[in-house]
């Protein structure tokens, strides 16, 4: 009898189907790898299993009984523990206190907490899990890997039978990943089921028994890992043939370099980055989360300065002190998370868009109403934003239309260099196609486009060249026939050894 | 529905207090005259609150708060009061007050924008600090050089106030509503991170807002001293709370991102009418209530603040 | 217990101890003949007791990420009730008990409102700042015929806690509080809540109840602080009493190293911070500084301290904000 069974489990948000009916089974002591692109529905599935979200339809059967978890705590109590990428923890408390938070603490005869025994109990649990961390240390002192280990130990001490790990190796070094795998092996031997969600296909191959592939909210394939290889997994993740979907109406690129970076670096974020973007060209920037792509984009836009290296914009030195300089010079950056970094959800669509060109419209600091309305209306039409009007609250638009509004904000001012960060994340297929057509048109007009994207088909289909970043530096530049999904994934994991290896600033 | 609540509340208040005050009318002409002078008086009396209310609306839009406004006005008035009276007052005291007020406001802005102190703590601190400076400047004395300054009392009368407030409304209202500055403030308060990504100079805007509050505090000081003609170190204590309550009642959210000058206008009138009404009902209160009716003011202000924020928060949550 | 303090807190405590010693030396040097240093120390106890005790309660509330700026007005209500009972012939014990009970009750009300209305604690307690003072005036009006603004309490029998054994109360409560902080689970839960509400929820804890317990404890500490405060004066003046007290208390807490946003701090820091502010004021007095300057200087000092604290956190916050 399977430990966990999902039958026809579905979930939608505001018209976007995050999970189509999912059928999945998991046995005790089994390690199941869950892979899929960004936006494929992995995090939604995790949230449903861990009790953060309730499914719209379908049945979850846990240990033979139907389960409906209203809160994460209920799921935890039932035996499903989730280790998120962002751990919720109390930094200023000790390891022992974090480990045993919510449990009864050992007391002395007169009622005070017996700290010695508390730490001894914590040490016992940590040792049981094979960890060598002093229980009296402050939690914020621990490394990311150690924090994760403590979180896992905590889950296990509560008799978790299913452990869900969300991108556990994202902030771990090689030896730490190996240690993690040792822990997981021990758990598997003890009968704990593990759901391992990761982008790193090499890890999936090493660790898991079966692989489940999510694509556009649907579980498209589940097969034993021994029958899987990177190529097959990538193909299943991506699915669509590329040529039909990505527009390429633009002529070959012009030769003038709009944006150049020469050995640019900023401590702790990225280093030795060199490349150029020509006018009329789309350069894709691929890589895993944490590779430093968005940080690089922000530095180009002027949100923070670079420590080393030089940048040039249209041949002239480019050292922006603030984003306003970038806008004046014709460089825009469309941020990654539209809800947190782009929009004020309570404001109207019109307001959200016109803030992008308010400096162009304003005379003596005032924005003429007529001119603004006309321009907003034109933007709504040009960017095909489906809204009841410029006064509709932007928070009530679909993800695709919100993204288009954000793009309209920056693109309506006809910038010459455009940096896009995940331009179609969380956007439905129709809006995606519209946005892609738009980006293609922009390049055709002679603009230089730098596109950060984690969606492989998009990055490969739209770009003229692809730069892959890993750990803060560019690990490969792919062009022509070398631009394949496999090469990108390999380069992102540091396993690429083909041609077009080291980037040139051509 | 919310739009009509405030004007209705205002009318209800005025009606209630007029009845309590025992005013009798002899015909519609009488009524018109009475209410005309009533509202005129109310406007003149509430000029400081009105002026500061505009400033406070902006501050709340940026998701901040300024508890030091009362102390600012008092300090500006106190410093101006130390200058010798007479026609020279216009050249010595008034420019001094203006510069001082802006500096006080910019200090708040600096603490909040550059040192990143939470607005409530920063302005709680400056509230006490500026008040302390009032005592340094005036000691226990009560000064009134304003009486002998030619033309000064104009600021205390309806015509003067109307013009000052009118200027602020025109500058603040008409210009402000369509200004780029306002858009940037709204975005700053709504989502500060997004504002930075939208190339809005967040720190500069914050300093500008708090500096503007300082400027309005100067105008408020003019109106206050013109009407009251004397100032002491403990003048205007509790002013900030009236202003905040007025702005909150007017529909401006404490969490930032939205705000209405018109709403503030009505909020100020409601609070001012409450103030005036309680004062006028003193004799009635002494007869019918076991406590001084003027003390009710504090209770009502506190309750109105909580009620206003709660309603605004709920309205905001519903919108999402 | 010292090992449970982070290096940052330990540094702060060391700084405060050194600072307090420097200030004491300055006072000793500034003393004119005839004045005795031991007198200064003896007076220090009851003088600084209200700030320290209220500070302990405020520290707990700030641990959870909330704040209570209505404490001064709560003390005023309690003082008013105290004065009324004195005038009606209550026994000292009954009056003291009433004072503490009223304080505790109003703190609990603050806690309930914050939990129930989901309005930020800062707004609730800002409203309370005015509301409670008005409440005190109304109560005074109703209970005292022809109330003229102050309630005089001339009988020395009612000045015990404030003047005679205030220092002992302080020492006893302080010892108890420090021991409690070292060995109880509740303060650790306050810190946990201030660190991460989500982590608490996931652990099965109830954030609302943790918050309420912080306000409950604050009420008790504040009750004793208020008791000492009101029994030191000859007359209770609801309209003007304790003005600015809340800022002193918050200043002491922040000076003591407790993070104003919650999640980190210690009681000992608050105590040393309160002493630091007190001795600074005393230095100003003995140096003959104009009394009117004192309030301004203390205000500026507190802003300076908080500003420095925030500025140090700022740079990290900005980068996190953009990320």
Helix count from the secondary structure assignment of chain A:
18
- The structural class of chain A is alpha/beta
Q: Report the oligomer.
A: heterotrimer
Largest interface, counted by CB within 8 Å of the partner chain's CB: B-C, 47 and 53 residues
Please tell me the CATH architecture of chain B by its name: Orthogonal Bundle
Q: Give the helix/strand class of chain B.
A: mainly alpha
Kindly provide the name of the CATH class of chain B.
Mainly Alpha
According to CATH, the fold-level topology of the largest domain in chain A is Rossmann fold
The outline of chain B comes out as: globular
Question: What is the tally of beta strands of chain A?
Answer: 20
Overall strand count of chain B: 2
* Number of discrete domains of chain A: 3
Main sheet: strands, sense, barrel of chain A: 6 strands, mixed
- Tally of distinct domains of chain B: 1
Instruction: Provide the helix percentage of chain B.
Output: over 70%
Key attributes of the depicted protein:
heterotrimer, A: 506 residues, alpha/beta, Rossmann fold, 3 domains, 6-stranded mixed beta sheet, 18 helices, C: 323 residues, mainly alpha, two-stranded antiparallel ribbon, 13 helices, 1% strand
Describe what you observe in this structure.
- The complex is a heterotrimer of chains A (506), B (320) and C (323).
- Chain A is of the alpha/beta class and 506 residues long.
- Chain A has 18 helices and 20 strands.
- In chain A, 34% of the residues lie in helices and 24% in strands.
- Chain A has a six-stranded mixed β-sheet with strand order 6-7-8-3-9-10, sandwiched between helices. In chain A, strands 16-17-18-13-19-20 form a six-stranded mixed β-sheet, with helices on both faces.
- The mean pLDDT of chain A is 87.
- In chain B, helix 4 runs antiparallel to helix 5, helix 4 crosses helix 10 and helix 11 packs parallel to helix 14.
- A two-stranded antiparallel sheet of chain B has the order 1-2.
- Chain B has a single domain, classed as ABC transporter involved in vitamin B12 uptake, BtuC, CATH 1.10.3470.
- With 323 residues, chain C is mostly helical.
- Chain C has a domain of 207 residues.
- In chain C, strands 1-2 form a two-stranded antiparallel sheet.
- In chain C, helix 2 crosses helix 8 and helix 2 packs across helix 11.
- The radius of gyration of chain C is 20 Å and the shape is globular.
- Classes of the chains: A alpha/beta (506), B mainly alpha (320), C mainly alpha (323).
